[in-house]
Amino acid sequence: MERFSQREGYAIPPDIKYRAELPTRLREPIVEILRQFVGSRFLLDRVERLIDPYGIDTMPGHIGSIPVSKSEDDPTSIAVKRILLGCDWFRIYDLIEDVIAQLDFHEEENRHPDEEAELRAYPLRHALNQYFLHAGIGWQISDGKIVTRGDTTFESTIANADAALQATGRPTAAKHLSQALRALSLRPEPNLSGAVFHSLGALESVARDVTGSPNATLGEIMKRQPGTVPKPLDQAIALIWGYASNEARHVREGVEPGREETTLIVSASAALIAYLATKSGPYKE
């Protein structure tokens, strides 16, 4: 249940500070959240399978003392916490994906859309996403995967575009939009050119459908089909298309858009996708 400050927009999430790192102090709440939904023995088994699948490596461990509550005061819980506080930061996210996949697998037979909230994987995802938001962590769980998270406005824009595409039956555009987000989430380096390519591809797909121009580029549609979007937004879209073509769609050595520019293009594309898809209605055969 949302609190008053959340419903009325007074609770502003902190800026994103952590993507390619996860300090020890931010790991402890994640460990605690995981332990609320699965036992320490299960966590230790999954951690060992992920980090040392062949049983030939030395497990990482936090050096020095670790805080232990009464509920954690047993050898298994301590071992889990010591490993997770001392392992590479990305292993935490590997574990989260693995735990959610395991819960989904074991509960699949009981899964029903109306009962999803009663199953462990759903509240676990919700609890972790709420924590990521609170802690300024630039990741989120979507469809069982850890993907990049933008600010609140960015996330809302993407969600609206995806909902519009699903409602109007445009799976190709929806797939491109999803691939744009995955490109932003790649590590150790995001695929910024790929994010631009797929986001503009999604927008182009919708624009082609709306205007009945299956072979035209987005730039051509804006020039030849006035009224597709209100003026002077059509000029802005044409300029975005030109920038994206120069910086990302046509690969040139040493030339790649920055993360800020890429996020802007993905967000702008998503906003225009929602506008066009909602305006035009369902996919036209």
Identify the notable features of this structure and list them briefly:
elongated; 285 residues; mainly alpha; 12 helices
Structure at a glance:
The chain has 285 residues and is an all-alpha fold. The protein folds into two domains: 4-146, no CATH class; 150-280.
Describe this structure in words.
By secondary structure, this protein is an all-alpha fold. It folds into 2 domains: 4-146, no CATH class; 150-280. Helices cover 61% and strands 3% of the residues. Strands 1-2 form a two-stranded antiparallel ribbon. The chain is elongated. The model has no long low-confidence stretch (mean pLDDT 85).
Structural class: mainly alpha
Radius of gyration, CA atoms, in whole angstroms: 22 Å
Average pLDDT reading: 85
Instruction: Report how far the terminal alpha carbons are from each other.
Output: 42 Å
| Helix content range | 55-70%
Low-confidence stretches: none
Give me the number of helical elements. 12
Topology pattern, helix = H, strand = E: HHHHHHEEHHHHHH
Number of domains: 2
| Total strands | 2
Largest sheet: 2 strands, antiparallel
- Estimate the strand proportion: under 5%
Sheet with most strands: strand arrangement: 1-2
Shape: elongated
